[in-house]
C-alpha cells in the first residue's frame, strides 16, 4: 500500500518535471487550484430527499463512484513534449468493480454494522474511494471534487425523513412531489472512465437517469437525465466540467452540483464523515473564490442556479457541530443568478427577509427600515425551525429535506453586493454572459445574518462546502439546464 503510494508520487513528480505542470503556487484552500492538475480526482454521490440513500437502484451498487488517475509516462527520460505525450497513459486508481460496490459486499476498512445498512454503507464507500484517490499534500491530503445529485421527491407516507433530525411519523401526501411508492429511488449511473486520446485530450463522464428501466440511448423525451463530462488538454489550461440536468413529470425537483467539500469531518448538509477537495477549510472573512461559469441553458423559471453556494454547520448556541442531528444546524447561503427568480423578501413580506442587512462598512439596516433595506438583494431567508428566540415575523425552513434543521440565506444579484465582486444586476453571469468570477465570498459571508441564541458567542464561520450548480425547484414541465465550470480555486486574502 505504502509502496504504491510512493510510486504514484514519483510518477507525479516526473510529470511535473517533464510536462511542466505547475504545482501548488500561492495560498490555496483546494487540492487542485484552478482545476489544472492533469491527474484528475472526481467523485459522484447521489442523495435522496433527506440526504441519505434509502434504497439502492437495482444493479447500480451504492450511489458513490469515483474517477481518479494520474498521467504516467512509459518513457520517463524523454524530455520532448510530443514524445512524452505519445508514451503517456492514464493510470487509474478506482476500478469499475470498486464503483459498483453495493450493500452487502465487503471492502477494505468497511466498519462493522455498515455492511447491511444502505445509508452507512454509502458513507463508508465514500471513505474507501477517498482512500484510493487520496493525494498527499501540505498541510493536509485531499481526495476529489464531488459531483452531487439529489432528488427532491419525498414519499411522506414512508416516514423516511426525520423532522429537524427527530424521527417523525408518516403524513398525508401533497406537500412534496412524489408519484407514489418508489419516488425516492436512486438513479441509474453510467460511467465513462477517463481516456486519453490523440492530441492529448483527456475526457470522461458520469450520466444517467432516475427513470429506472428507461433507455437514455433512445432519447430523453419524458425522462429525467443528468450528465457531467470532464475534459482537459494535457498540460494546458483547466479541466472543463460540462453539466446537464433535465427534469421530468416524475422527477420535477432535481439538484446537480459540483462541490469542493471538506476532506475530513462533515460537509454542508451531510452528517457523516466526508471526503473532498478543501485541504484547508476557509473561514470568513479572509477568502475568495475564483471560478469560470458559462450557463448555456437556464433550466426554466424554477431553476435556482447557484453561482456559489456555501454550506456549513454550527449549533444555535454558536458551538461547532458534533454529529448530534437534534442540535446541529446546517447553514447555507447561495447567490441565485436566474433572472426569473423573484425576491420573496419585500416590505410587505418581512418574514422572508433576514432581520437585518449589514453593509460593507458594517452598518446594520433593519428590515423594517423600508427606506434603506435592500429587499431586492434577498430571494428568501428562512430560520431553523428549532430556534427558540426568533424575531417575528419569520419563515422557517423545510424541516424534512436535510438530516437536521437548516437555515438558508438566499441572495439575488443587486448593486449592494458590488464590493464583493458578486453579480449586481439581473442577468449577470446568466446565459450569454460567461465570466470568470472572483468573489469575496469570505467577506460577504462574514456579514450575512445567521440565527444565534441571544448572548451566545458568535459561531466561527468556517465553510465546509463550496458548490456550484442548479436546483430545479419543482418544475411544471420538463426543463433542461446546461452549464460549464472551470478554473475553480479558493484563495486566502
Ligand atoms: C447482511 O445480510 C446478509 C444477507 O441478508 C446476511 O447473510 C448477513 O448475515 C448480514 N450481515 C450482517 C452483519 O448483518
Ligand atoms: C451517457 O454516457 C455514456 C457513456 O458512459 C454514453 O455512451 C452515452 O451516449 C451517454 N448518454 C447520453 C444520453 O448522453
Ligand atoms: C492552451 O490553451 C489555449 C486556450 O485554452 C490555447 O489558446 C493555446 O494554444 C493552448 N496551448 C497549447 C500549447 O496547446
Ligand atoms: C456606510 O454605508 C452606507 C450605505 O452604503 C452609507 O449610507 C453610510 O454613510 C456609510 N457609513 C459610514 C460610517 O461610512
Ligand atoms: C425595527 O426593528 C427593530 C429591530 O427589531 C426594532 O428595534 C425597532 O423598534 C423597529 N422599528 C420600527 C419603526 O418598528
From TrEMBL:
Coiled coil: none
Signal peptide (from-to): 1-23
InterPro entries for the chain: DUF7705
Occurrences of domain DUF7705 (ranges): 28-491
Keywords annotated in UniProt: Signal
Pfam families attached to this UniProt entry: DUF7705 (PF24804)
Protein name per Swiss-Prot or TrEMBL: DUF7705 domain-containing protein
Organism whose genome encodes this protein: Populus trichocarpa
Amino acid at each position: 500500500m505504502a509502496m504504491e503510494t510512493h510510486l504514484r508520487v514519483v510518477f507525479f513528480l516526473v510529470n511535473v518535471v517533464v510536462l511542466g505542470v505547475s504545482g501548488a503556487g500561492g495560498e490555496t484552500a483546494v487540492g487542485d487550484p484552478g482545476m489544472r492538475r492533469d491527474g484528475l480526482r472526481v467523485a459522484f454521490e447521489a442523495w435522496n430527499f433527506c440526504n441519505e440513500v434509502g434504497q439502492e437502484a437495482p444493479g447500480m451498487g451504492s450511489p458513490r463512484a469515483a474517477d481518479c488517475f494520474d498521467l504516467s509516462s512509459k518513457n520517463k527520460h524523454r524530455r520532448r513534449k510530443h514524445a512524452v505525450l505519445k508514451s503517456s497513459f492514464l493510470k487509474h486508481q478506482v476500478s469499475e468493480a470498486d464503483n459498483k460496490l453495493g450493500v452487502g459486499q465487503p471492502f477494505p476498512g468497511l466498519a462493522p454494522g455498515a455492511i447491511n445498512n444502505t445509508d452507512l454503507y454509502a458513507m463508508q464507500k465514500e471513505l474507501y474511494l477517498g482512500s484510493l484517490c487520496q493525494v498527499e499534500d501540505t498541510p493536509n491530503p485531499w481526495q476529489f471534487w464531488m459531483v452531487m445529485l439529489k432528488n427532491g421527491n419525498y414519499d411522506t407516507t414512508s416516514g423516511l425523513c426525520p423532522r429537524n433530525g427527530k424521527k417523525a411519523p408518516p403524513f398525508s401526501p401533497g406537500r412534496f412531489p412524489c408519484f407514489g411508492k418508489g419516488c425516492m429511488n436512486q438513479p441509474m449511473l453510467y460511467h465513462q472512465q477517463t481516456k486519453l486520446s490523440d492530441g492529448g485530450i483527456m475526457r470522461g463522464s458520469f450520466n444517467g437517469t432516475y427513470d429506472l428501466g428507461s433507455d437514455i440511448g433512445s432519447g430523453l423525451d419524458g425522462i429525467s437525465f443528468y450528465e457531467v463530462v470532464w475534459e482537459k488538454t494535457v498540460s494546458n489550461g483547466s479541466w472543463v466540467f460540462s453539466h446537464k440536468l433535465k427534469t421530468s413529470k416524475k422527477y420535477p425537483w432535481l439538484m446537480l452540483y459540483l462541490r469542493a467539500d471538506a476532506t475530513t469531518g462533515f460537509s454542508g448538509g451531510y452528517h457523516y464523515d466526508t471526503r473532498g477537495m478543501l485541504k484547508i477549510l476557509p473561514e470568513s472573512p479572509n477568502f475568495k473564490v475564483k471560478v469560470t461559469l458559462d450557463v448555456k441553458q437556464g433550466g426554466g423559471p424554477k431553476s435556482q442556479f447557484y453561482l456559489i453556494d456555501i454550506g456549513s454547520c454550527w449549533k444555535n448556541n454558536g458551538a461547532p457541530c458534533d454529529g448530534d442531528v437534534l442540535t446541529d444546524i446546517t447553514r447555507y447561503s447561495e447567490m441565485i443568478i436566474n433572472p426569473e427568480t423573484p425576491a420573496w423578501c419585500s416590505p410587505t413580506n418581512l418574514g422572508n427577509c433576514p432581520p437585518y442587512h449589514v453593509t460593507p462598512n458594517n452598518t446594520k439596516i433593519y428590515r423594517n427600515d423600508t427606506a434603506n433595506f435592500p429587499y431586492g438583494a434577498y430571494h428568501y431567508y428562512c430560520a431553523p425551525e428549532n430556534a427558540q428566540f426568533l424575531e417575528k415575523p419569520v419563515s422557517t425552513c423545510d424541516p424534512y429535506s436535510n438530516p437536521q434543521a437548516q437555515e438558508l440565506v438566499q441572495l439575488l444579484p443587486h448593486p449592494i453586493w458590488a464590493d464583493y465582486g458578486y453579480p449586481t444586476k439581473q442577468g449577470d453571469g446568466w446565459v450569454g454572459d460567461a465570466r470568470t468570477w472572483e468573489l469575496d465570498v469570505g467577506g460577504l459571508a462574514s456579514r450575512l445574518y445567521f440565527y444565534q441564541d441571544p448572548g451566545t458567542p458568535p459561531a466561527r464561520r468556517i465553510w465546509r462546502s463550496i458548490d456550484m450548480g442548479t436546483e430545479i425547484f419543482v418544475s411544471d414541465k420538463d426543463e433542461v439546464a446546461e452549464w460549464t465550470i472551470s478554473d475553480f480555486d479558493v484563495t486566502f486574502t
